[in-house]
Amino acid sequence: MAEVGRLRLHVLPFGIGAHALIESMVTLMRFTDAAPVAYVEGLRTGNLLDDPTLVSSCQSAYDLAMGDAVSHYESLALIRAIAEEHEHGQH
């Protein structure tokens, strides 16, 4: 999907250590006819957040993590290389 442009892939390297999204996964959603929301998911829990302050906080955490992430093209190359190593039993 990333190779055909359906999504943007950014690897967040383990080497950066603790980062803004280490606690959970977040999905940010924007709509033309409604306020933005964030879906935050952790172990055995998930919450849809519509409070503007909380959504803004999630957006800030995402922005901070993206600042440490590898570029889309470098991420694709890394994933390809790891997949090829795995395919050839070099893991």
From TrEMBL:
Q: One Pfam family for this entry, by name? A: DUF5753
Q: Which InterPro entries match?
A: DUF5753
Residues covered by the DUF5753 domain: 1-80
What name is this protein filed under? Scr1 family TA system antitoxin-like transcriptional regulator
- Species lineage: Bacteria, Bacillati, Actinomycetota, Actinomycetes, Kitasatosporales
